[in-house]
Design goal:
The complex is a heterodimer of chains A (about 375) and B (about 120). Chain A is of the alpha+beta class and about 375 residues long. In chain A, about 20% of the residues lie in helices and about 30% in strands. Among the domains of chain A are: about 15-60 and about 150-235, 2-Layer Sandwich (Gyrase A, domain 2); about 290-373, Elongation Factor Tu (Ef-tu), domain 3 (Beta Barrel). Chain A has 9 helices and 19 strands. In chain A, a hairpin with a 2-residue loop joins β1 (about 25-30) and β2 (about 30-35). In chain B, β2 and β3 (about 15-20) form a beta hairpin. The two termini of chain B are about 20 Å apart. The chains are: A alpha+beta (about 375), B alpha+beta (about 120). The interface of A and B includes residues 44, 299 and 325 of A.
Amino acid sequence: MAETPTDAALKVTPLHAAHIAAGARMVPFAGYDMPVQYPLGVLQEHLWTREHAGLFDVSHMGQARLRGADPLAAFEAVTPGAFRGLKPGRQKYSVLLNAQGGIVDDLMAGRPDDDGLFVVVNGACKDNDFAVMAQALAGQVEIERLEDRALLAIQGPEAAAVFQAHVPAAAGMAFMDARALSGFGVDLLVSRTGYTGEDGYEISIPAHAAEAVWNTLLSDPRVKPIGLGARDSLRLEAGLPLYGHDLDETVSPIEGDLGFCVSKKRTEALAYPGAARIAREMAQGPARDRVALRVLEGAPAREGAQIADASGALIGVVTSGGFSPCLKGGIALGFVPPAHASPGTRLAVIVRGKPQPCDVVTSPFVPHRYVRK
Amino acid sequence: MRFTKDHEWVEMDGDVAIVGITGYAAEQLGDVVFVETPEVGKAYKAGENFAVVESVKAASDVYAPISGEVVEANGILSGSPDTVNAAPEAAGWFAKLKPANPAEFDALMDRHAYEQYLQTL
């Protein structure tokens, strides 16, 4: 019974039985039967992660190795980043682009070791992503999907101390470092990243060891399991966009406020898909900007809520939003024309027909606590 | 106290009906972070959307369990929406209605029938 997902068409991660045993409420997500919350509940799971350490099963995400004569150079054919300059032991956030410069997915790509490029993409997009890469990079890289590996994230101010007690070598890592390490008796691919705004690690482990590692980390009283519900509210407070909501194939990295992952030089050289559009947007400004909105009163604004300016004219839409457990109010990400995108601009979100005042604010809503060198 | 399949409860206090969501509903929603109670003076038909309850995750509609005019909304919920979790079938009530048709109350499930209904979910 515990091994059976709620819907037979759904896939399960190597930690499925552990989630059920922990009393998780399971929901379909990205084709997997995933824990949306544990008995603690979304609000307390969120606050626990901000104060202590939360452990997340993100094994639905797509992991792969790209190997070839020069995988870094090859990877530049589908992304706007300067991957040739990616040093051993480092990782980059990037986006996979279509020919129009729209975002096919966002991803992490790193060099934990000398074995090509280690790539992690979103679960809901992974089949398409690897097909796009295989087609664009045919003859240059071999893509090996690592379907026999689980992926965990441990996040929060106490996450580093917990993880380093088991894997001391991880102590030398800074934000966006990536390493192949040994720990828990198996080989690990470790990066000092996450998607909550907190310090912490993402850990790729052989599937057969996943449950033992999960239980070992949870045996530390500073650690609790955290479901997808709190994962979403944490990333929203951190101002981090969610693919399929804040980013899609129509949104460029400039519109999406991801200019930091775009190489200026490679854009000027028109050296990647859609670079002409990105160059134009960098020079003239995009048609719309992703902004962070703080709802000042009333109900939280959720995905799909319209955004109005001071005159009541509809100027944009909320792409993800909800209640911030740390700020105890509504926060949202959405798109508006650049004229309305400066922090301090008073706008309104329309919730169930009622305009509610909101301010454009600087992102993140809750400060990041990454450990940089 | 009577119950609907959508997990609202109604209790008669003289000729006024007190309305809220059940303990089961509150448990399913998780931590309530916002409640939009109905406007005093507005009339609703049974089954009409008359309030919204929000958790961190999502907003859920609450339906009027019986027809009637709103005579009072629970002001506590604007400052302390978590009262819905703490006492869903008492201090966490949503609104008081003047029933339009007392027969609607009698047609709802009693607690035994509601608990049997929960077993089927």
